[in-house]
Amino acid sequence: MKLYTKSGDKGKTSIIGGRVDKDHLRVEAYGTIDELNSFIGKAVSELDASKFQDIIEDLTAIQHELFDGGGDLANVMKDRHYKLAEEPITVLENRIDLLSEEAPPLKRFILPGGAPAAATLHIARTVARRAERQTVSLMKEIEDVSPVVQKYLNRLSDYLFAAARVVNYRLSIRDIEYIRSGDVFK
């Protein structure tokens, strides 16, 4: 099998059940989810399993769930079954709560950064937010889009923030507070 098909050389791409322009909102949304998945893979490669096995396991599961969500957005078949369910959202919420308890309390906005893996998780967080915005735009244009994907991306960005903070904390790297921030977290 060749990696190239030449079928997209005229600006169209195949999705599950059809073809659309490569700049269609649907392609933008699931393409950004693919970009997000790549940054998460990069973060995993930067984590030491002896200190971060729990986060590595979370991120690996998330990568599979992102494939599910991207596939759901790429599916335009009349009789379709969505793969991404509500249960992973609950898992994310539970993990956010645990990670938030581990990191020091937060009062102000912080600068993204710290350890390489934490910085990558912050990048992934912002890409997750963009994917969510694109999914919302798609939902406004096309009514038959699974709302679970948007909800999952919303929760995922919170998870990625919590995970980035814990990575820095476990490595004894202090969060750098935004110097002009007032107390925003109480």
TrEMBL record:
What protein am I looking at?
Answer: Corrinoid adenosyltransferase
EC number annotated for this UniProt entry = 2.5.1.17
Domain called Cobalamin adenosyltransferase-like: residue spans: 3-167
Origin, by domain of life? Bacteria
Q: What catalytic activity does the UniProt entry give for this protein?
A: 2 cob(II)alamin + reduced [electron-transfer flavoprotein] + 2 ATP = 2 adenosylcob(III)alamin + 2 triphosphate + oxidized [electron-transfer flavoprotein] + 3 H(+); 2 cob(II)yrinate a,c diamide + reduced [electron-transfer flavoprotein] + 2 ATP = 2 adenosylcob(III)yrinate a,c-diamide + 2 triphosphate + oxidized [electron-transfer flavoprotein] + 3 H(+)
Q: Which InterPro entries match?
A: CblAdoTrfase-like, CblAdoTrfase-like_sf, PduO-typ
| Species for this entry | Solibacillus merdavium
Keywords of this entry: ATP-binding, Cobalamin biosynthesis, Nucleotide-binding, Transferase
* Family of this protein: Belongs to the Cob(I)alamin adenosyltransferase family.
Which pathway is recorded for this entry? Cofactor biosynthesis; adenosylcobalamin biosynthesis; adenosylcobalamin from cob(II)yrinate a,c-diamide: step 2/7
The lineage is: Bacteria, Bacillati, Bacillota, Bacilli, Bacillales
**Annotated SUPFAM superfamilies:** Cobalamin adenosyltransferase-like
MF (Gene Ontology): corrinoid adenosyltransferase activity
Query: What is the enzyme's class at the highest EC level?
Result: transferase
